[in-house]
Amino acid sequence: MPEFDDVFNDIGEQDLPVLHLQLGSPEAFKVLFFQYYPELLSFALMCLQDQDHLVAHRVTLEAFFLLWERHTEFDREKTIKAFLYLAVRNKCLHEARSRTHTNALPVTPPSSLPQDILSDIFAYIDRSNFFAY
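RESULT FIELD:
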């Protein structure tokens, strides 16, 4: 059986938030959200061909909420990043195919995420000027 120190050294510092997420830490989710939201939002906008900023926000939020719902499945940051990019891409493709998307953000957050974490996430989105050019 491997020693704790061997396992810890093998993990790497960048995967610590992932391990906390895997254990269900809402704070680890928030750290990963703040880290990846801007680049995933830009990716969503690119996939949507710069057509709709609100839809880009919605599909990005949906991808993160899906991550939270499946948080026990991830053990490395690389797999989380790949999952988020694939989820955003698939949601954008679905939006493009349906062509009946709404601009509102009717995203239902997972009930297992604490309200204070959700408040921080939505406040971050509100105060950030992602599309100022």
